[in-house]
Structures are given as structure tokens and as C-alpha cells.
Amino acid sequence: MFWQRMLSHKVGIIGLGLIVAILLVALLAPWIATHDPLKVDVANREAQPSAKYFFGTDDFGRDIFSRVIYGTRISLYISCLSVLVATLFGVIIGGISGYYSGVTDNVIMRFMDAVMAFPAILLAIGIMAVLGPHMINVVLALGFIYIPRFARIVRGSVLSLKEKEFVEASRAMGNSDWVIIMRHILPNCMAPLIIQATVSLAYAILAEATLSFLGLGSPPPAPSWGNILSDARNFMLDSPWMTFFPGVAMTLAVVGFNMFGDGLRDVLDPRMK
Amino acid sequence: MGKVLTLHDLKTFFYTREGVAKAVNGVSLFLNKGELIGLVGESGCGKSVTGLSILRLVPFPGKIVSGKILLDGQDLLKLPLDRMRQIRGAQMSMIFQEPMISLNPAFTVGDQLVEALRVHREITKAEARDRAVEMLRMVEIPEAERRFKEYPHQLSGGMRQRVMIAEALLLRPKVLLADEPTTALDVTIQAQVLDILYKLTQEIGTAIILVTHNLGLVAEWTRRVVVMYTGKIAEEGRVKQIFEDARHPYTQGLLRAVPLPGQSRRGQSQALYEIKGIVPNLLQLPPGCSFHPRCPEKKEVCSREEPPRVTVEEEHHVSCWLYS
Asked: How far apart are CA A75 and CA A83, in angstroms?
């Protein structure tokens, strides 16, 4: 049922294809890459794309193709983990807020509003400045700024779900709050959550790149799409391949997640169509 | 026959911003072991809230203010919440009005039945499964094995309500609160569902409070009737006493407002009787007997003082000034 409808959704399937391709690239990076991404080849600095260096080399003579391939790993790793963190805390916070409503709800949601009121990237920059550049810190910073979106979605779903008769019936059967939340409420807000998570992955990839570009992301020399771009920006006019290829990789990933997210929304959300 | 459930002067009030709504205002009633009684009244008279109060599931901003709810002599209002949870579902359970949304759409019918069993009993999944399938057979669901694995949306309304009955009776409770269990079903299915409900509860020995506004159901299935109006009991008695010898003007009005087949053909076509006026706002109940503004036989005292409870016959009581 789900797969039939998903398969007939062309845009969604293209998105899924892109995501699968990117995941494969990340998994098989050591076999796909032609060079060591960190190896410096002084003789071939800023070389044009060629048979030896598919995407050319950067100002240290490192192979951009291999760096982009390995960068996929880091970019995906950071964005997936940060969305996971955001989902986890968003579900807990939104669940408590929606289920217990009243004062608890008000306090929590006003705090979430405050977090949301900051421009996301600015907040992430602030957090990174405090925590210092480290991969885990990037995950935490990005995770934190996305919590409110998840909390809001979960709270909204919980608010409407807890009035449903099957929740009341479950309470009349003698179930505890914990069982009611875990068995009767959360499984029924999975659809909007999955959609939000997919779309957030796209944002997280961009945000991670933004942080790296500003020098606050995953620290060099490890390649991520953002810091490849960051290194390359001084040579944009002389050696455009240095910015072009990581840019393309990032675009494909973002477009892929967005398309897949759209597809999921059309398939999972009965109100569409 | 011993009393399995007794309500003593139960009061459940809702503290809204506009004021205090006395949804249940001094209700006393009892339920014998294995007995089926009807709780009837118009919308908003407090019958559903009475049911929810018995399970202590009154929604916010409602609160049980005073009174006693005795289940086998044990006052439920004095129990800690976790003890109360053990009673819900095991000793008392409830069926709700809307079978369409009373089952969790994310799990199969079987999952939900097994869960209901395992909340209260320490049994293995396989045992629970067998019991659940057996119960589905008892509520006369054909191909119980197959239905067990299906999701609620694959079942019809009547089928779902039977699943709800199965779930409610799974642990052989002493008391079942059925809140308009058949209102959402069409008439032929209503009869089937009630028939199953009746047979099963007789077998198990479960007493039922049937909350409804359908007087036909009450006449056909119950032994005693309790008529509620604005949170109070207007009249109660055996079915025969109520249907043939109703004393309270409100009960009389309710009965006259039921259309009889062929009524208009018998000579002059008269318009169907209606009780004039509407149910008063619970926030602004009229003083004295709250029915007096709508009552065709009101006396001067009715608007001043609350009517006393008068025993007309054995088991037949009425709260009205006409009889004291």
C-alpha cells in the first residue's frame, strides 16, 4: 500500500534514488576515491580536472574528487546525527508539553519559541563559539537549533491525539500515562515526524556547510563539503572547479532529501491531494 | 442479589472560567450483580459524566467533589491512583460511543486485545493470543483468526464495536459502563451488538450501566431505569413502572416524545409531543426544581425549593413536588 503509492510518486522516487546513491558513496568511499583525500601533491597544485584528478586539485594539491567523496561521509554523519538528536529531544519535549498541557506546556513552548526566534544559523554559530570546533559539538549545535520544529509538530499531534477515544478507552482499560504515550500517541504521530526529519536533513546539510564555511564546523583537514568550499573560495575565479564540484554534491543531496520529503508528505499525509 | 456498585450522593463539578457547572449533582444509585440498568436523559444531563466519574476519568476541569463510589464495598474515591488503574479494565471497564475511533489505528485488533490482557495479567504472549481469539469468537466475529491480524480500518463499524466489547469483557469485569454503545451503528446492527453484549454479560455475570438516550433500547434490554435531568436523578424504577406509570413530568414528556409507528394514521394526525424549552445551561440552573421552567404541571413551590425524593412503589422513586 505505502510502497505502491510511493513508487508511483515520480519526484519522491527520484529523491529516494539520489539519497540511496549518496548513501552508497558514503559507505563505499574508500573504494570509490582515487586518492588519499589528505595527501598533498605539491607538484600538482590547482590542477584542472583531468584523467588523474577527476575534479582537479586544490591549492595544496589534494584530489578534490576524493575529498568530495569522503566529505559525503562527514556531511551525512553530522546531519543525520543532528537530526536524530533533534528528533529525540523534540519528541520528548513536545510529548510532555502536549500530553500534560496547562502550565507545563506554556513554559516549555515559550522556551521553544525563544529558541525559534533566533535565526537558526546565528544561534548555531553562537553555540559553536562557546563549545569550540569539534564534530560532536557541530552535531549538538545543529541538533539543538532544530529541536523546536520537532517539539511543535509532536505537541500538535499529541494535542489532537489525546482527545481521541482510543486514548480514553486505553485509560479506561487501566493503562498508565507512559503506556498511553508510547503505544497510543507516538506511533500515531510518526507520519509528520518522518516527513519533518527528512526535510530537516536537507537543512542540516546546508547548515553544517555554512558552519564549516565560516570555519566553525568540522575542523580541517578532514574534508566536509562545507570546508572544501571554504578552502576554495579564495580561488573561485582562477580555479572554479574547486568550488563547483563540492557545490554540486551538496545541491544533489539537498535536492534529494527535499524531493523525498515531498514524496513522503504526499503519500503519508491524507489531507494532501 | 448483592450490590456490586453503589453511588452515594456523587457530585462532579466542572470548574470552568464562566463558573461552576454541576454536571453530576448528588446522584445515588446502585447496581446489583449481573444486572443491566439504563441511565437515560437528554444530552448534557450528566449521564456520561456519571459514567466517567465511576472510573475516575473525569476530564479537566472536572472534579469529583464529594460522594462515595463503592465497588464491592470498597470506596474507589479513597484509592490511590495506581490501585485505581488496576481496577480499570479488570474489574470495571467501559465501552464508548464511537467505534470508529475507539481503536488505535496504528495497531492490529489482536495487538490491542493482547495488550489489554497483559496490562493486568502476567501471561505469555501465546496465552494472551489464544484468549483474545477466543474472545473474538465469543463476540461472534467470523474468521476470528484472520480478523485478529487486521487493522481497525479493515473492519466495519459493527465489527469494531464488537471488538470493543471483546476488549472490555476480556478480563471478566464486574461492572461494564456502556456509554451509548450502539448510537453510531444502524438499527439492525444495534440489535445484534446488544444481543451479544447481553448474552456475554449474563454468562460472565457482569453488571451493565447502559448510558443512552434511546428509550427503545432501555425498554427492551434493561431491568431498571434511572432518568437523569441536569445532573440529578428525576425518577428511577423498574422498566415496567417507568414505561407504564411514569410519575415525573419529565419522564412522562420523554416517553410521549417517542414516535410510535402508525401514530399519525390512527385517526387525527397529531404533531409529535415535545418537551417545551431546552435543557437549561448547567452554569445557570433555575432555583428549586431545575425542571420547573419546562414543566407543564409546575406548582408555586417548585421554583423555590428542591423537590424531595418520594418512594412511589417498591424500587420506584421520583423527585417531584407532585407526590409529597
From this structure: 12
- Mean pLDDT over B209-231 rounds to 89
pLDDT tens digits, B91-118: 999 888 877 778 888 889 998 899 888 8
Domain residue ranges of chain B, discontinuous segments joined by +: 3-259+270-323
Report the alpha-carbon distance of residue A162 to residue B111 in Å, rounded: 20
How many C-beta neighbours within 10 Å does residue A154 have?
28
Of B50, B88, B41, B91, nearest in space to B69 by CA = B50
> CB burial class (10 A; 0-12, 13-18, 19+) of residue A107?
exposed
Look up the CATH superfamily of A57-268: MetI-like (1.10.3720.10)
Indicate if the pLDDT at residue B267 is higher than 80.
Answer: no
Chain centroid, CA A255 distance in Å: 12
Cβ contact A155:B91 at 8 Å: no
Mutation to test the A interface, candidates B52, B101, B104, B112, most A Cβ within 10 Å:
B104
Residue A83 has pLDDT above 90, yes or no: yes
pTM, rounded to two decimals: 0.75
Mutate: best of B79, B102, B209, partner A, most A CBs <10 A: B102
pLDDT at B265 exceeding the cut of 80: no
d(CA B151, CA B143): 14
Residue A66 in contact with residue A36, Cβ under 8 Å? yes
Tell me the pLDDT of chain B averaged across its residues. Answer: 87
pLDDT tens-digit map of B282-322 = 888 888 888 888 888 888 888 888 898 889 888 899 999 88
Tell me, letter by letter, the H, E, C secondary structure of chain A.
CHHHHHHCCHHHHHHHHHHHHHHHHHHCHHHHCCCCCCCCCHHHCCCCCCCCCCCCECCCCCEHHHHHHHHHHHHHHHHHHHHHHHHHHHHHHHHHHHHHCHHHHHHHHHHHHHHHHCCHHHHHHHHHHHHCCCHHHHHHHHHHHHHHHHHHHHHHHHHHHCCCHHHHHHHHCCCCHHHHHHHHHHHHHHHHHHHHHHHHHHHHHHHHHHHHHCCCCCCCCCCCHHHHHHHHHHHCCCCCHHHHHHHHHHHHHHHHHHHHHHHHHHHHCCCCC
Q: Pick the closest to residue A25 from A195, A217, A256, A233 (CA basis).
A: A256
> A273 pLDDT exceeds 50?
no
Q: Which three cell numbers stand for residue A195?
A: 516527513
Interface of B with A in 90-109 (CB under 8 A): 90, 93-94, 96-98, 101-107
How far is Cα A240 from Cα B47, in angstroms, rounded to an integer? 77
Nearest by CB to A173, from B89, B97, B105: name it.
B89
Torsion of CA A148, A151, A152, A153, to 10 degrees: 130
Partner B contacted by A170 (CB < 8 A) = yes
Tell me yes or no: is domain B3-259+270-323 CATH 3.40.50.300.
yes
Could you tell me if A179 lies within 8 Å of chain B, comparing CB atoms?
yes
CB contact under 8 A, A173 and B88: yes
| All structural domains of chain A with their residue ranges | 57-268
* Grid cell digits, residue B292: 420547573
